[in-house]
Amino acid sequence: MAKIVGVVTTNRQKVGGGSPIFFANDREELQKIAHLLEKIMDCAAHLIDEDLFIIVKRQ
Predict the structure, then answer these.
(1) Which of 9, 36, 40, 59 is such that its CA lies 20 to 30 A from the CA of 22?
(2) pTM metric for this prediction
(3) Residues in a beta bridge with 52
(4) pLDDT digit string, tens, across residues 17-32
C-alpha cells in the first residue's frame, strides 16, 4: 500500500487536501525540494506534471 505524504508544487491553485504542501518558486526549486524530501523521508518522488510532484511512502 502507498500513501501520499507530501506535495510539492509551483502552482498554488492545483493543490489542496490533507498532505503537507511545499511551494516552490520555479521548476528548478521544485525538483530540488522534491528530491531532498525523497531522501530525507525515505520515500519516492513522482512527477505528476511539470509543476507538481507527489511524495509517496510505500509500506
Answers:
(1) 59
(2) 0.91
(3) 9, 49
(4) 899 999 999 999 999 9
Cell (9 digits) for 28: 528548478
Classify residue 37 as left (phi > 0), alpha (psi -120 to 50) or beta: alpha
User: Which residues face 56 on adjacent strands?
Assistant: 4, 44
Beta strands in 1-59 (DSSP E): 2-9, 21-23, 44-49, 52-58
DSSP 51: T
C-alpha cell at 36: 531532498
Distance CA 48, CA 14 (A): 11
